[in-house]
Amino acid sequence: MNSDAFIDIAFNSANVVAFTTTIHHPEGIAKSGDFGAFNLGLHVGDDANIVNHNRATLLSKLPAQSQIQWLNQVHGIELAQISTPSTNPITADGQLTSTKGAALAIMTADCLPVLLAAKSGDEIAALHCGWRPLAAGLIEKTIEQMKTSASDIQAWLGPCISKQHFEVGQDVLDAFKQQDLNYSSFFQPKSKAGKYLADLQGIARYKLQQLGVKDVTQLARCTYTEEDTFYSYRRQPNTGRMASVICLK
Q1: Is residue 236 one of the residues assigned to a domain?
Q2: CA distance 206 to 29
Q3: Which of 239, 199, 248 is nearest to 39 (CA)?
Q4: Which protein family is it in (predicted)?
Q5: For the domain that residue 243 is a member of, what is the CATH number?
Q6: Which domain holds residue 225?
Q7: Using only C-alpha atoms, what is the Rg of the chain?
Q8: pLDDT computed for residue 218 by the predictor
Q9: Which residues of the chain have pLDDT under 50?
Q10: Hey, how many other C-beta atoms are within 10 angstroms of the C-beta on 60?
Q11: CA 207: distance to chain centroid?
């Protein structure tokens, strides 16, 4: 296996397996073109046979008898409760399970993947946190619906577009300020009127800590600048998708 293909994520419980992918294929397959070598998104225009092979390769990294639940992500706050994973994608931007062998996958190419796990190792969640789900309350909804108390949850924030490159408009800042004026500290004004640089990881960390989740780690890497490692929609709109996956074994 190509060690550059996966970035392992450490959670407190030995029952939790988690990792995020890169553009590199674990079998060392090189592929030129817009979709790199290890695209996992079926919705971006890539060859479906190649993507399905990539998904099968991804599954082989998980514990035996696992099944991946994929989502049709729409930048909303729908949270799917997974008892038995389906081979069909579910329209949602978050998913939650206590089922062993259920692997929750989030696809990204600049948005922030957030993985949550009970420190007891019996409950996990995976969230697709672009600015819209963040502002609309996807994290809050998930913490509320988890059986685990916030103080017993560990959170991981994955690679996303960094603050230095994520330009947004006044509407985005206003969407957060309406909830809490402290969000202003995660927006750096640009010289251009009404434009700001937004810190997705900072916003998510603040939200989690305000909700009582104190154990938060992050992979502070930028999908936009690290073109040899990650897909980035803002860098190249016609591109593939990484997956951040968490599973109970």
Answers
A1: yes
A2: 39
A3: 239
A4: Belongs to the purine nucleoside phosphorylase YfiH/LACC1 family.
A5: 3.60.140.10
A6: 6-162+199-248
A7: 17
A8: 96
A9: none
A10: 12
A11: 16
- The whole-model pTM stands at 0.97
User: Which 3-state string (H, E, C) describes 66-113?
Assistant: CEEECEECCCCCCEEEECCCCCCCEECCEEEECCCCEEEEEEECCCEE
Beta bridge partner(s), residue 20: 7, 244
Contacts of 202 (CB under 8 A, 6+ apart): 163, 185, 186
Q: Report the pLDDT value the prediction gives residue 31, as an integer from 0 to 100.
A: 80
DSSP string, 24-81: S-TT-----STT-S----TTSSS-HHHHHHHHHHHHTTSPTT-EEEPEE--SS--EEE
**Distance, CA of 217 to CA of 220 (rounded, Å):** 9
Tell me, what DSSP letter sits at residue 150? Answer: G
- Per-residue pLDDT at 1: 60
Question: Alpha-carbon distance 188 to 175, whole Å?
Answer: 15
- Whole-angstrom distance, CA of residue 147 vs CA of residue 144: 8
Cα 121 from Cα 249, distance rounded (Å): 9
> Does 183 reside within a domain?
no
Rounded to whole angstroms, how far apart are CA atoms 239 and 225? 14
With a CB cutoff of 8 Å and minimum separation 6, the contacts of 149 are 212
User: Domain count of the chain?
Assistant: 1
Does a structural domain hold residue 180? Answer: no
CA distance 207 to 203: 6
3-state helix, strand, coil in the chain (%, to 5): 20, 30, 50
Count of other CB atoms within 10 angstroms of residue 241 = 26
